[in-house]
Design brief:
420 residues; alpha/beta; Rossmann fold; 2 domains; two-stranded antiparallel ribbon; 35% helix; 21% strand; disordered N terminus
Length: 420
């Protein structure tokens, strides 16, 4: 392959990657089992394993975090959790949503943030495999320029290759029931990823994945539907005034997705929906040298760990709607759980209900409340295609951050095949 004009920029990461391979290949190809971490008192609730799996001819090195089940890891299901973003680290879900430990919520004082056990961790009943994907997310990195390019459909290719290679290194889990989960932007990448897994299974690609179903929380699914329901949701929740609602509805003609760039009034109104987050404690903890050493992260990572990148990498937003993938997976008989925090303005549940209704599936179990500890935890409905939809009362984006007990109960019931 010819070296481009900026050949130095191309060769340097290749040479550095080669040096990394020669010196610490046990990190790239080995598995590192971790029983303790800086900031956590005593042994971890369950075994944590980290490592790298190379895909795209080893040019893309994907970092993973594998958490063994606290129950029966040899037989419990494996949950592959895909991050959102699309440039968020798998550690975000581990620390803030469903992992076995969490950061202590207190103001940063200059010392290493403390880790605490999570009472409602999903790893109490399943093995969870978190991954930093796509390239540039978390500790994952590329050794060539061309591997720095990714997109919605490229993720599907990478996930499939990653998981099969991971299984080859962990053959003891090949027969375990496999589920794929994620939230937020993974609503665009998870369905095509699962569809790719199914197709490759049918073509005999080894090892065969024992796929049973998938779940999505607060999932972005259809860019038009999701984008056009935010304003109505905010007004219905009393988050914006009647006057502002009428102003934005009139200026945008009721369409808030793919706005006309010349419609400055509409653009100005929509900007008021910008949402900023602050997860600073994870930055301090994940960028501490002691933590990175304990996690066996690649020390030559060209950038510091960031929970979610803001589009600095080459990424193609290819999936306008993932509804067609849900249809294909349902036709093959896979179970699915779609849940939404009913206070989520990023991906409002009314948009999620809209695309689910568009499937025209027969309702199996009518709209009803579901209960946790004698309290209404949300509302749910099941369909003949083995799809369950549930709202999580009082939860935002993403639901387990706001309602960990309720979401853990929901997941436990669904994974066991029980009604919510």
């Amino acid at each position: 392959m010819a070296i481009p004009k900026n050949g130095f920029n191309y060769i340097l990461p290749f040479l550095f990657g080669l040096w990394h391979f020669m010196n610490i290949s046990q990190v790239v190809f080995g598995q590192n089992r971790i029983t303790s971490l800086p900031g956590y008192e005593g042994p971890l609730p369950s075994v944590l394993e980290t490592g790298y799996i190379g895909v795209e001819k080893e040019e893309l090195q994907l970092f993973y975090y594998f958490v063994e089940s606290e129950n029966n890891p040899k037989e419990d299901p494996i949950l592959l959790w895909l991050p959102g973003g699309p440039h968020c680290s798998g550690m975000s879900a581990l620390l803030y949503e469903i992992g076995p430990f969490q950061l202590e919520e207190k103001e940063y004082n200059g010392t290493l943030p403390r880790l605490l056990p999570r009472q409602y961790s999903w790893s109490k009943i399943v093995n969870i495999l978190f991954v930093d994907l796509p390239v540039g997310s978390g500790y994952s990195y590329a050794t060539t320029t061309r591997a720095n390019y990714s997109g919605d459909l490229k993720i599907a290719e990478n996930v499939n290759e990653f998981l099969r290679k991971w299984m080859l290194k962990h053959t003891q889990y090949v027969s375990n029931p496999l589920y794929v989960g994620g939230d937020s932007y993974s609503g665009f990448t998870l369905p095509p990823s699962v569809h790719r897994m199914v197709n490759d299974n049918e073509e005999g690609m080894q090892p065969i994945l024992n796929l049973k179903g998938y779940l999505l929380g607060n999932p972005a699914t259809d860019r038009s539907i999701d984008g056009n329901t935010q304003v109505a949701f905010a007004h219905g929740m009393g988050l914006i005034s009647d006057e502002f609602f009428e102003s934005i509805k009139t200026s945008c003609n009721g369409v808030y997705h793919n706005i006309d760039p010349n419609n400055h009034k509409c653009k100005s109104n929509v900007l008021q929906f910008t949402r900023k987050e602050s997860y600073k404690l994870s930055l301090y903890w994940m960028n501490d040298n002691r933590v990175q050493e304990a996690l066996h992260a690649y020390k030559g990572t060209p950038i510091k760990w960031i929970r979610c990148h803001d589009g600095k990498y080459h990424y193609r937003y290819e999936v306008e709607s993932s509804v067609k993938y849900h249809v294909k997976l349902s036709a093959k008989g896979f179970r699915s759980l779609i849940y939404s925090g009913d206070h989520d303005i990023i991906v409002p549940f009314i948009g999620t209900q809209t695309w689910i209704r568009s499937l025209n599936y027969t309702i199996h179990d009518e709209w009803r409340k579901w209960i946790v500890d004698s309290q209404i935890a949300g509302y749910t409905r099941t369909y003949s295609n083995k799809m369950t939809f549930a709202t999580v009362k009082g939860a935002g984006h993403t639901a387990p951050e706001y309602k960990p007990k309720e979401c853990a109960a929901m997941f436990k019931r669904w994974i066991a095949g029980d009604a919510l």
